[in-house]
Amino acid sequence: MSQPSLRDEIATQEVEPLLPIEKKLIGYSLGLGIVLLVVLIAVNHFVPIKL
Amino acid sequence: MSDIAIKASEPLTLRAQLTEDWLAVVIGLLVFGSALVSIGGVDLLGWAVTTSVYTDISLALSPFAKGYAWLGGGGALIATYVALLAVLSAGVATLGADVRKFALAFTATFAIAYASWIIGSYAYVAAVTPAEQQKFGLTWSLKLTNEGGFIVALLAGIVIANFFPRFANWLKEAIRPELYIKIAIVILGATVAVTAAARLNLASSLLLRGAAAIVEAYLIYWAVIYYVARKWFGFSREWSVPLASGISICGVAAAIATGGAIRARPSVPILVSSLVVVFAVVEVLILPFLAQTFLWQEPLVAGAWIGLAIKTDGAAVAGGGITESLIMAKAAAEGIKYQPGWILATTATVKIFIDIFIGIWAFILGYIWTNHINKGPDRAKPAEIWQRFPKFILGFIVVFAVSLWLAIGSTPEIAKALPAAAGEANVFRVIFFVLTFFSIGVLSDFRKLWQQGFGKLAAVYFVSLFGFVIWVGLLISWLFFSGFKPPLVS
Question: How many CB atoms lie within 10 A of CB B335?
């Protein structure tokens, strides 16, 4: 498919509603990410960078 | 993959990406291995050209090793060009490229890129400290350091892309920023190891914090940007996956890998990739200077931030190099002399950690898409994790491990000679950085941003990058790296 038709496609594409599996992917990713970041911040606190 | 594919060849294949990765490993190891021979007393690469800050251009160039002084600067430049032309021509021949076209285009690419580097080393551009200005008899200078040459190369490429499109098209066979930066990253393993060997505790601490970059890029950035693309901008799943991956993970490679994993049409991630390159250029032109202005007292925060904020390996790692030069220059002007290498090592560590997981993330997305969204016979297979793994990282790890062993696990004589050998390899790392910057510039056709439809993609990128990615990256970098400085020059 050529780029002009891709551009038309972008401009005119219909909205696809978020499926439950997509919502799960987004939610679990964010949740896991925040939990892991908190854990890493704690590790960073208790095991500071050594010079 | 080669960025040339974005413009030059529509049918992009995973196979080509893998081949280019392995080619980068082979060339990177060739440079590293040749440099290591110098430890045994045989200098194979001492003829490589280096550039000093100058006011008299006849004194700008010289061979790396004094043993090759008879070559002179011009001879060293020609020798370097011929060697690179031979090795890269043989390399791209294995990729199925037109070697004659490549040789001609590479000649022009090398000439413009290295001329840019020489311009960047002009004292009025590069001199930083009052002592340097006094040495060259200057009353002012741009204080960009000699690595301002990267910016000059980038701008030269942008001018060609936007004002001389036919010339840019003629150059395309040699415009391979991903190949160049992957070779540079493999070579960088030696410098990082030599730097790390001096402070193993600090180096191991940096590695631990690389994990935070993985969490941030894959689990937080990706989820938010995918949501923004789908919900706020109404993009389809096929467009949103490569877009979110390109903006949040590692740019072009991520867009291609995840686009392939969800079985998107090849042209979709290719179009996203060209957008990623354009934004990476904008970031490289802005963020290092912001880092110098606001983060010069937190060098490692700056290094990590660049690695998290700038997408595409080339722009990020090369941006880390500029940031290091700018911050070291500013610190030096304040009387603080940091050991070189730490800021760039932080950027490279962050970027490499992010890259390592692209195969796994692509498989996870592929599994979800082919089993739950677009069910069909072509299901994602675990073997794809290895297929999509960026192989050049193996080259970096090998070079890093061998160099580290030589630095701390071998004889004192070898350990003493290793920094010089790594420095010799580093000459080529710098040249590949320059080629990367110029190539990225040549691929940066800003007119695309204004084309109908493309603006909507750019809007997602703009909103995500400046509304979220940059600031969260800064916060995370601050949380993990603030208060810790590179060692000082003793």
Answer: 7
Contact criterion met (CB below 8 Å) for B47 and B34: no
Tokens of B377: 């016979």
Q: B346-365: per-residue pLDDT in tens?
A: 998 888 888 888 888 988 99
Residue of A nearest to B6 (CA): A3
B96 DSSP assignment: T
Residue A22 C-alpha, separation from nearest chain B C-alpha, in angstroms: 9
Contact between B179 and B1 under an 8 Å Cβ cutoff? The reply is no
- Residue in this structure with the two tokens 């995973």, named with its chain if needed: B14
Residues 6+ apart with CB under 8 A from B259: B241, B242, B245, B266, B268, B269, B272
pLDDT classification of B385: cutoffs 50, 70, 90: confident
Q: How many residues does chain B have?
A: 490
- Mutation target vs A (from B248, B480, B485; most A CBs, 10 A cutoff): B480
Cβ of B219 within 8 Å of Cβ of A29? The answer is yes
Put simply, the chain B residues between 200 and 219 with a CB less than 8 A from any chain A CB are 201-202, 204-206, 208-209, 211-212, 215-216, 218-219
What's the pTM?
0.80
